[in-house]
Amino acid sequence: MSVLDKLKNTMQKTMGRGKEEAGRRTGNPDLEAEGRKDRAAGGAKQVGEQAKDAAKDARRTFGS
Hints:
Protein name: CsbD family protein
Number of helices: 2
Domain CsbD-like: 5-57
Distance between the termini: 20 Å
Shape: rod-shaped
Organism: Actinomadura monticuli
Region (Disordered): 1-64
Helix content: over 70%
Family: Belongs to the UPF0337 (CsbD) family.
Number of strands: 0
């Protein structure tokens, strides 16, 4: 995973956490839900990038 992609995904998760907390404190369920969505999307992207890295490592290991 490139450092830039990792940083983007982490930032998306962090921003989502902030939105979720802001929504909770202000009683805004839409903002809270948007924060949960952003956190989930950032996490899913990170898992996808890790899977790509694992595939690259496997190709290098087995010489394909």
